[in-house]
Every structure is written in C-alpha cells, then in structure tokens.
Amino acid sequence: MPLAVYVLGAAVFALGTSEFMLAGLLPEVSDDLDVSIPTAGLLISAFAIGMIIGAPLLAAATQRLPRRQTLLWLLAVFGVGHVVGAIAPGYGVLFACRVVSALACAGFWAVGAAVAISLVPSGARARAMAVMLGGLSIANIAGVPGGALLGQHLGWRSAFWAVALLTAVGFLGVVFLVPRATDTPSVRPPRLRAEARILTDRQVWLAIVTIALFAAGTMCFFSYLAPLLTDVSGLGERWVPVVLVLYGVGALVGTITGGRLADAHLFGTLYAGFTAGTGVLVLIALTVHTPTAVVVGSALLGMAAFVASPGLNARMFNLAGGTAPTLAGATVTSAFNTGNALGPWIGGVVIDTGLGYVWTAWAGAVLVAGAIVTTALQARGASRSRVVRAAEEALPAPVTHDREGR
C-alpha cells in the first residue's frame, strides 16, 4: 500500500474529528456564545448542510481539475475555516465557518478517493479505501473525545485550533508524499445528465430515505449526548470523553462486522442494525437515570449504527454504481448528511418543547424504526429495478466505495 494512501487517511482523521467533535462541546459553546444548547447543536447541522451541498457539486466540479493541487486547495480552505472558527466573535461567523469547512471536506472526499484508487492496482482498491475510512474510524475513537477533553480544559476554541494544526500536517503530507503524477484530471468527462436518471428510480429514493432516517435517528440522540450524561444521568464532565471513546470503539467494531456480513446478507444486516439501534435507544430512554446503562448503551449504539452503514452504501452502489459512478457516491454522502442535519434539529425541537434530553432517545428510536419500514419496502421491490437493468445493459459496474462506508 503506497505511503500516499496513508497520508490521505491521516488527513481524513482531521476531517472526521471536525465533523462530529461538537457533540462533546455543546455545553462549552453554548455558555461562551450565549446561545441555547439546541441552537449550538445546529452547528452540527451546519456541517452536514455543507456536506449535502458540497458532495454532488464538488464531485462534478473537480472532475477536470488537477487532483493533487485540488487536494491542497481544499485542505487549505478547511484549515483556514477552523482558524477563523477558533477566533469567531459570535455564533453567525462560527456557523458560516462550519458550512465552508464542510464544503471543503466534501470535496476532499470526492478527490481523495479518486487519488487513492489511482495509486493502487485494481485488486487493492478496497484496501485503499479501507485505509481512508480508517482515518474516520480513528477520529471517532480518538479525535472526537480528544476534542471534548481539550474543550473541557482549554475551552472549545482549542479544539478548533487542534483541527487546524492536524490539517496543516495533512497539507504537508500531501505536498511531500502524494506523487505529482496524480496531479492529472480525469480524461473522461462526467455524463451528469445521464447519471441523473438514477433519481427517477423508486428504489434509489427508498435507499436515500432509509439512509436519511437512520442517520437522523442516530444524530438526534448523539448530538446531545454530552448534556444528557451530565444533566440527566448525573455523570461528571470527565465521563463525556470516555463515553465518546466507547461509542467510537463500538462504531469501529460495527463497521468491521457489517462490512463482512453485508456482502452475503445485505438486507439481513440492515434489519439487524436498525432493529438493534431502535432497541438500544429505547433501552437508553428507559434507563437514562442509571449511568452504567447509558454508558454501555452508548457503546452498543455505536456498534448497532455502524453495522448498517456498509450495507447502506452497498445497496446504493448495487442500484446505481454502474450507470452513475459520479453521483452514486455523492448521493450516499448527501443522504447521510441530510440525516446528520435533520437529527440535531429534531433533537433541538424536542428539547425546546420542554420534553428534555431523554426524549432525544425516544425520537431517535422512532426515526430508526422508520428505516426498518423503508428497508422492507426496498426488499419487496429489490428483484430488478430499471436502473439495475440499465447498468447491466450499459457497462460493467466499477469497484466504487464511498467515504461513509463505515
């Protein structure tokens, strides 16, 4: 495996840390900027919104651009966005920085995946993508709780400075270790009009809705995990990074397990992940005043949620990867981040109505249960969608992997 692929994975560690670290910093951000915790939670939605917009636009816009230079520009924008966020005088500036940083993050995923695949033979593409996704998994285990720990001792702005520093290291890695030979745009122009036909297929839309419901249900609870632990379960602040680490470990175990099971039993793996996720959220809601149960439940939620993620990606690529290689991955990213944007907003609405943090678990359980319903509808009509038939009649489906393929 070329060293450059590991450099890209290290850069992904910085991107992934930024994407979710505010889940452990909401109380600090709320106090410093004088906004409510639900309003602070919208900063997580802001990043997701940038990813929703950026994934399809930058996947198309960067097709003809020099790849290595594009990676450097995107990392530079991402890093500057965090420097500005670290010194932001108010909530509005920080919100804008989150959106801009997310646009750069989405672009890096689109270009970085293409670069990683171009550096290895066809038989090693999955391993190359696994290295990049490993950066995201490690971010969940170390980066996100590390950001929470920094925020508790040095203020939430220190976490933004840390991400900016990590991004600078990734930038230098690309400068010195990613070969200049990769600085070549795609020679084949994207056929976006033809690819957009996937959006006329009912099965594709069911897959999109399933991903969005699943992600929204998970983020509805996860976004407000820190205040729930301290204000409802009665744990001290020092426990927040520990629980985030456990969630990340569960996510890594779930990703590995789900990746192995989904190839042979796709729908069975989805049912198992969604059913387990719903059950864990209900269990947390019922035992929220028992700290041990919430801590264990958080780790189990990470495992249950990420067991389903590889199957969700595989389902979309099975449907559309052959006829829409550019938009299939972008569609998965946008669908996940639609849920990532809706989840914190729904959780905030629940809290603002006076129901309290515990109801973020109940609302999350309802959303994930909805994904079970849409999965059943997919399974019923999964025999032959017209997009699959078109793919088989056109060209062989390329080996493609998406960044969320956790």
User: In what range is the share of β-strand residues?
Assistant: under 5%
Task: Provide the low-confidence segments as ranges.
Answer: 384-389, 391-406
The total of helices stands at: 16
Structural class: mainly alpha
Radius of gyration: 20 Å
Instruction: Give the overall silhouette.
Output: globular
Q: Look at the structure and give the mean pLDDT.
A: 80
Share of helical residues = over 70%
For the secondary structure, the number of strands is 0
Largest sheet: none
Order of helices and strands: HHHHHHHHHHHHHHHH
Q: Gap between N and C termini, in Å?
A: 20 Å
How would you characterize this protein structure?
By secondary structure, this protein is mainly α. It has 16 helices and no strands. The chain has helices at residues 3-20, 26-33, 37-61, 67-86, 91-118, 125-154, 156-177, 192-195, 202-222, 225-232, 239-262, 266-286, 291-320, 325-352, 358-380, 386-393. The longest helix is centred in the middle third of the chain and has 30 residues, at 125-154. The protein is globular.
